[in-house]
């Protein structure tokens, strides 16, 4: 009886942990898509850059952009001048 209880308990723990890990992994892959640049600039004042090595083609900016490949890819339609920085200010 004790052995059966130990097996069922360990099986429950393994299954519980495996389902919990999937929820965390799926939460990390979701990236917010913004309706327009005004909405994006409320969260990221300088816009979003794809990499840290990109240069702004639009001239002088007031704020430094946040660097995130996933966030930029989700909002790449907001990059009008195609300099790999979306909604720069």
TrEMBL record:
Q: Does the keyword Signal apply?
A: yes
Q: Does the keyword Signal apply?
A: yes
The cross-references to Pfam families, in alphabetical order and at most eight, read: Excalibur
**Source superkingdom:** Bacteria
Residues spanning the signal sequence:
1-21
Domain Excalibur calcium-binding spans what residues? 33-88
Which keywords fit this entry according to its UniProt record?
Signal
Q: What is this protein called?
A: Excalibur calcium-binding domain-containing protein
